[in-house]
Sequence to fold (429 residues):
Amino acid sequence: MTHIFRRSAAACSMLLCIASAQAADDELALDESAEEGARTTGVLQFDVARTYARPEHWSMARARAELTAQGGSQGVKWKISGRADADAVFAIDSGFYPDAVRRDQQYQFDLRETYLDFSAGDVDIRLGRQHIVWGEMVGLFFADVVSARDLRTFYLPEFEQLRIPQWAARAEYYFGDTHAELVWIPVPSYDRIGKPGAEFYPLPLPQGTRVRGEVKPDNTLGNSNWGARLSRQFGGWDLSGFYYRSLDVAQTFYQIGNEFEPRHDRITQIGGTMAKDFGEFVLKGEMVHARGRKYNTFNPVLNPDGLVAQNTMDYAFGVDIPAFRDGRVNLQYFGRRTFDHNPAIGLDRVEDGASILLNTKLATAWEGEVLYVSMLKRTDFMLRPRVIWSASKNWRLVFGADVFGGDATGAFGRYSDRDRVYTEARWSF
Fold:
């Protein structure tokens, strides 16, 4: 197979993840001050994107509606939410995408966070479909290992829209400055990557290559995920450590002759996070050691399935600094170190990168933002400028661009023919 195969898939897996701003942390319990009874909120959003790199085409014309109801009594609280999407781009450019892509992305309904909250003594329990967010880096997934993600538009959406909730039982216990958390996921959710021929399908496909249907594990007790997390404050430092044993949310592409089959392997992840507010800036960091994950060599001569197992350490460190007019600067350094490194995966033993986010207020109700992410050992980058107009508390309009460039085998450069401009209109009620 080509050198593109050997490097790009591994690089994309290493990156785990550049997106726009990190969503706010998910809280286990609903606001204690909320009135009893049900209250309803919602979001209507319309996204239009035009890919201007050749071949030029409309790549999104999606209407999205999300509705949430929540309430409860003093002892039990509940939340129900759902999302419906309809994308007219498949009618506008009806012949551009394969039928499998149209069937996968034209219409969709998702049950979002839907759960019950209650207490058993001093233990807070949440049962149902929920977000479990363990990572807090701006624009990066590292310690956020529990979340599944909708990657059919790469890592471009805001994280609150990109994350897929998990069906989970979650228990939390607080004692002093220490917080303990146990999670069991009997029916895991996995990353959505779309179908071959989609705008951001993660596997480059040479002529004559076929991808089989995704193999998802059966919903048995042995295929459930579980983990534990412990966090505590020490002298102003917020520190946490976790252990997570799971079926990987990301797909591993097994090579079978001239075909590939996406599967999910069982992996173990051990990691931790740190954060401290120094007044003038906030320092954050995350590290995750992963065992059991396999990487493509795309060479069945070396391995019958084209894969090699590699243990890795992912890490990210960043500072958030107030700057400009009610704005900020965020700087981050991230990377991956591969143990027992096999060069057949097309990456160096250590792969690293950096990002910079600049945000500033331009005028009343207007702000500007630029995110630049680049790998450091090769030319491979993503540039995301945007302007945001907050017309009122409930209305927001965004104009932006997503630009990819560099090495055609890189995590970003391989999408250099996906450069686009877009607009997003959002109404919250």
Observations:
- Residues 136 and 257 are 41 Å apart (CA to CA).
- The first helix runs from residue 3 to 15.
- The chain has one domain: 3-428.
- The first strand starts at residue 39 and ends at 51.
